[in-house]
Amino acid sequence: MNNFARRIRPFGSREIAAAWRSPDPATRMAHLERAHVLGQASTREHVRTHLHMLACAGRRGDVHDIAGQLFRVLGAAAFTGVGMVPAGNTGG
């Protein structure tokens, strides 16, 4: 894990934990979007956040969002390391 990922992980983890504590899907997604913005420069954190977003979509049974998050997980894994991510994108 690089220095950025090591430093940002606690902040992303806090947002992810807050997301899963929330019973409200919109609030849950807002926390995950914050985690995404924080960690999108790190492949590990970027993929981790999209996996949580995928789990959220699965919990809601949103087939369209599940497909979108699967695509984003693959894209995050393939392109984050070479800097191909739009800055500030919420990932939703």
Give the overall shape.
globular
**Beta strands, count:** 0
Number of helices: 4
Q: Give the strand content.
A: under 5%
Distance between the termini: 25 Å
The computed structural class is mainly alpha
Which runs of at least 5 residues are low in confidence (pLDDT < 50)? none
List the helices and strands in order: HHHH
User: What integer value in Å does the Rg equal?
Assistant: 12 Å
Query: Which percent range fits the helix content?
Result: over 70%
> Largest beta sheet, briefly?
none
User: Which whole number gives the mean pLDDT?
Assistant: 92
What does it look like?
By secondary structure, this protein is mostly helical. 75% of the residues lie in helices and 0% in strands. The chain contains 4 helices and no strands. Helix 3 (43-60) packs antiparallel against helix 4 (63-79).
Summary?
Helices cover 75% and strands 0% of the residues.
Notable traits:
single chain; mainly alpha; 4 helices; 0% strand
Question: What's the topology here?
Answer:
Layout: H1 3-21, H2 25-39, H3 43-60, H4 63-79
Helix pairs in contact: 1-2, 1-3, 2-3, 3-4
